[in-house]
Amino acid sequence: MKYFPPLICLFLLLSSCVSENPVPHKISDYQLIPIPQNIKAGAGYFQLNPTTSLTFDQQNEEIAYSANYLKDYLQNNNQIQLAQSSKSGNQISLAIDPASGPEEAYTLTITQKGILIKGASGQGLFRGTISLIQLITQQSGQENLVEVPCVHIEDAPAFSYRGMHLDVGRHFFPVSFIKKYIDLLAFYKMNRFHWHLTEDQGWRIEIKQYPKLQEIAAYRNETLIGHYSDQPHQFDGQKYGGYYTQEEVKEVVQYAKERFITIIPEIELPGHSRAALAAYPELGCTGATYDVATKWGVFLEVYCPKEETFEFLQNVLSEVMALFPSKYIHIGGDECPKEQWKNSAFCQDLIKKEGLKDEHELQSYFIKRIENFLNSKGRQIIGWDEILEGGLAPNATVMSWRGESGGIEAAKQGHDVIMTPTSHCYFDYYQSDHPDEPLAIGGFLPLEKVYGYHPIPDELNAEEAKHILGAQGNVWTEYMKTSQQVEYMAFPRALALAEVTWSGKDKKDFQGFCSRLAIHLRWLQNKGVNPANPLYDVKTTVKNSSGSIHLQFSNQAQDGIIRYKNSEMASSDDPAFTEDLTIDKSGTWTGQTFVNGEAVGKPQSIQFDWHQGAGAKLEIKNQPANKYGAGGKEALVNGVLGSNDRYGDKEWLGFEGKDFEAIIDLGKKTEVNSVVFRFYHGPGQWIYAPNKIKITLSDSDDPPNVWQEKIINKKTRKAMEVKVEVDSQEGQYLHILVPNFGIIPEGAQGAGHGAWLFVDEVRVL
Ligand code: TNX
What we know:
CATH superfamily of the largest domain: Glycosidases
Low-confidence stretches: 1-19
Shape: globular
Strand order of the largest sheet: 8-9-16-17-18-19-20-21
Number of strands: 37
Bound molecules: ligand TNX
Largest sheet: 8 strands, parallel, barrel
Number of domains: 4
CATH architecture of the largest domain: Alpha-Beta Barrel
CATH topology of the largest domain: TIM Barrel
Structural class: alpha/beta
């Protein structure tokens, strides 16, 4: 590493003073997350005890933040009070050297004689202080003494934007929790907190000029119970809400500042604004009154681009800017249905007057006006990727959430980008396919997938790639009522993202991350955090190769063994899992991790429904979408049924706007009575079961001339089965053609888009 050559000299000098023969450490003894760029293992320990003093320039506020953070930490957790002194001896020194590297770079040198943390700025110094604190937390320690292992670390982040988001609109969380969340982000060297403050279901920030935002927009009459796709909708009948006062906001901003975290506030416009419209209906297009939304989704009620609305938003944003020093203000811009603008004479006139092409350009006009205003105050906007539609505002930064394509396009246009694709950054998605996971919105995003993310898409050249500032994990809280639940969903996935964005591609090692994670999970639990613990949970993998089916059990732990049983085995002598099991019959197999003879983590069961097509070879014409095809085409004939109420597991294949066409090769002429199909029906998630199925059983794999057709009259929500009695009783090849439902009709969620077709096991009976 090129930074701080003088420090290396100091390190060597200090180490040379050590006279005894201290025990050398291994790199794996330093269990830091995110893993530093460069660790040079030392030998022996620094004795941190009540004689240890702290030396730093007290005139420098930037240094004082780190000094105070360290002092408070040691006082509260180790009962060690650091004296302030400039005398030499048992000492921790903090310093800033601006010439020594990028802003957040630091070196941490621990010898038996002393500890020196040097940052390229106050930020770098703070990140280095966190590394020291992480090492301190990992030593068992006696009262008043921590032995900190000697080391030399040179470190700097791969990405400048390392963020976490929290939606406080759907559910509201107290200031104490917001601070806890910020502390956790700081502990993993994140530097941005995106505070999503306004939503259809509640406005959460006090705006003095508009008291009805507090009285009306901050509260909803009741809240949806269960999942949105559970029909009919039911409500709890309880008034719900709250907001942060400006005093509280100031306190939180200061708290974050002391931890070198910038808070980016989000005020959503022009969509997701139903709560504000409930308070000030005159800002809408319809002349109607509104209520604060009580269920989730996308609502037609949006701000009307009238002068009155711009005045309101500018006044709101002025109060927001006075509270938040952040260069960026997030203005939303996502999911703004255009119906009300289409039906509004005012909007149609405005479109003509401004020479706009359509409502998308009107949205762009809206965003540009807000951008002008914020730019005139020295601020920059961030918007969700929909702000690309109708033309990007000149200085906008784009948050790419609907995949990476919006981010790619924006970077190519020379705009900065923050990556938050649903595929890798939506921590409201399920993290495990275990059946007793708490209710979540859907999707499937396990830890290793987050860890595998790299924010720079291959499509960008080196120049364009510079526009990718980093990535952010989003925590939408429709299904998180409590802060414990937020913790469960955010952690440890946020730790994986912290390593993705700080350590970068070259340092990544999932195995190593998991072994470091074990100690961090323990620390989080001791701190009263409620992280998910995926390490010992058993996972099943079903492989379907050359006509037979194999089952594998695995976990992410470094210790313990997995034992398994199946429904017919006696439970007393569960064998250890050592190699893949061959499956050739129906039944249930269960795997469980054992450490020192004790069951730990969640067991996993898998049920096989044997049928004539199980393990068969097959071809499919259209490919499923990447994010809904994890099990591959073989999942269609592996004998395993996907979840009844979640389409994100590896058994379901999701085709976006496309037909499902397949040929299943049964291996030989086979007598078939019926074929049972499984589809998913969830219009709220843009998923539609098909209207018909066509099949043919024949002796040839050539496309058939005649099809047997089955019309589907009755659709039930979630997983549904359709049985087709086969006319031509024998054949080797089963040809299947299931046409996609087509374009989603007006008035439904996702209107105008091609429907998703989700298919699971095709059982040949
Ligand atoms: C989409 S991401 C939304 C949110 C939802 C989220 C649920 C984005 C800009 N909009 O309003 O809460 O999906 O995953």
